[in-house]
């Protein structure tokens, strides 16, 4: 899905909306891609060394991507303004990284 959205933002969206909205979709795609990769890495880590906090990391990132990237997509593609949802998504993404640090530190002990 993110590949389709990225391609659409690069080639078709500019005719429908402003450059700022195209940039918003590109940002959403970039954050979704990096966090999807990070989720997959944590899931592989969980297969090798299961730790309770890993589920929190994955859940925070998944919710963060849904809120952050999803709200940017809806804003650019449907004209919806979801206000506070985008920054909440960003906070969830950051909380996921903080949770990852905590899990990693606890795994060393």
Automatic annotation (TrEMBL):
This protein's membrane topology, according to the annotation, is: Multi-pass membrane protein
Q: Which UniProt keywords apply?
A: Membrane, Transmembrane, Transmembrane helix
Question: So which domain of life are we looking at?
Answer: Bacteria
Annotated TM spans: 60-82, 88-107
Q: Does the keyword Transmembrane belong to this entry?
A: yes
Q: Where does the UniProt annotation locate this protein?
A: Membrane
Major location, coarse class?
membrane
The family classification in the record reads: Belongs to the UPF0382 family.
Protein name in UniProt: DUF423 domain-containing protein
The lineage is:
Bacteria, Pseudomonadati, Pseudomonadota, Gammaproteobacteria, Oceanospirillales
């Amino acid at each position: 899905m993110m590949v389709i959205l990225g391609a659409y933002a690069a080639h078709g969206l500019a005719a429908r909306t402003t450059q700022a909205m195209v940039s918003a979709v590109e940002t959403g795609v970039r954050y979704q891609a990096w966090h999807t990769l990070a989720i997959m890495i944590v899931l592989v880590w969980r297969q090798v060394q299961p730790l309770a906090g890993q589920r929190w990391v994955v859940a925070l990132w998944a919710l963060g991507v849904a809120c952050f990237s999803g709200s940017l997509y809806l804003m650019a593609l449907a004209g919806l303004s979801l206000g506070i949802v985008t920054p909440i998504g960003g906070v969830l993404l950051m909380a996921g990284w903080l949770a990852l640090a905590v899990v990693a530190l606890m795994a060393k002990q």
